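Encode chain A's predicted structure.
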Amino acid sequence: MATQPLTVSDPEGQPIGYVVGGSLQSTLRVRLTVPPQTIQEGSFVTIRSGNWQFYGTVVDLQLGATDPRFADEPSEARLPRGLVDLLHGQTLYTNLEVLPKLMAEIGPEPGTPDYEAWVREHPEGGRIMSVRTVPLHHATVRLAGAGDVAEIFGEPSERNFVLGYTREQGHPIPIDLEKFVQRSAGIFGATGTGKSFLTRMILAGLIKYDQASVLVFDMHNEYGYDDIASDSHEPVIGLRTKFPAKVRVVGLGQDTRIHGRTPDFNLVLAERDLEPEDIEMLTRELNLKETTPTTLAALVQSFGDRWFHEFRQMEVGAEETDENGKKVPAPNSVAYWANSVGTNVMAAEGLHNKLRRLFEKPYILPNPPEGATIQQVIKSLEAGQHVVLSFGKFESDLDYLLVTNVLTRHIREAWVRKTEAYRADKSKNPPPRPLVIVLEEAHKLLNRDLAAQTTFSTIAREMRKYFVTLLVVDQRPSQIYDEVMSQLGTRISGWLGDESDIHAVLSGLADRDQLRGMLTHLQPREEVLVMGWGMPMAIPIRSRRYDERFWNEVLGKTDLSIEEGLQKLGF
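Encoded structure for chain A:
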């Protein structure tokens, strides 16, 4: 909301046309008075109509003619140039389709007695609201100026993190980080569109803002320490390098090194950390059978939380000779246990063989060393630090699915306990620190087959009230379960080439038909469409570059290179 009276568009807000028609339910038609090449789809425009100002985006440009013959028959070869220009100006035209999203009462013209009276009646200015009416015919349409952009999207600050700039005039477009972390969000784009760089920038803003902790599941070891870009081979700065006191890099498995460097600590899973649902989630990866849940339930009933350890110690096919000289299952065999509890032997032995891939994982230990457990990660996040979990050499889908789900399940339980304690007695218990979990290649965990079995779908649906949200990063949003996609408040998307992916990103949005054109016409790199909960209105922007200039702006450094200094001096 405005804290001071709204002003008319900035003087540099160029008039580009006037309203000639349209409706509240669809779009407004605007007759263009400037060459069409000066306006792009996605341009942010304002419309002044009486005491009201409307804000919208251009979603289409259409060529028209007063008579089709003037458009069908070129006149340049038959008439003098001056007459051609005059004729075209009267008979050929371009219309814009403008999608109005917001409106605000701005009062009479500044400097008039009526304006002073209006200011006294509205000391906090006009309220910005969703559009509820339409402007008058012939209302002037302008390209939004810097003041208009700041009025709607806010002035840049630590909370209002600049994500990019308007494509025509370069006005900064911030995203409200406080709102951004209140709901799960998604970053999408085809391979090579710069999703990882955009994610790094948003994470840098969240770390600088420091009102939420961040847990990054870094499957490809690219967020913590400095790296080399795969396409340009240029150095890429890691989050740990710029925030050494706030970011902790955690390596999966003992003695794991990331890019030749020793992480802040290593994470191993305790055998007792695993539960049957963690195994059932791996049905596709391990090719488990429908008898698996029954066998797992019998193991838990027999051994409690030591089921994984005890099952790991058993042997398949171990036999001994009884007093009658007959071969029988040995006491340490799977068959011996299965017979003792009345479970199908073949199903138990089959499960043991399938779980051998997990039994051989070096990061699953009976008794992890102190300081290398899941609790250490949770303590770091609760203390306000940010954790990048790098998987090191464990980059298979099996490792990613298992570790992310187990760790997130324990985190969810911890945040639920803290939230319930806070609500029970706010005077004694502080609220839990908000947490954002960054999930790369999200479709592997949030597809239709697995979504119901993972902790992540629960977080997307319910954990907002427990101060935990997701940031999913993916190149195939169409493979993410519809119910999860519907829970994503803020969506940031680069170019997508597949129609099903475009449909998935825009699913559930009221203006998806109009937004589709803006999304499909993005440049393959450095342009994104930002929409949803964290933004007052959808808008395509030119994203910031992830370079040293970006870091100087984020960290508040004013050191300039010689070239930058000369440029600022006008040379």
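Confidence is low (pLDDT under 50) at residues 1-11.
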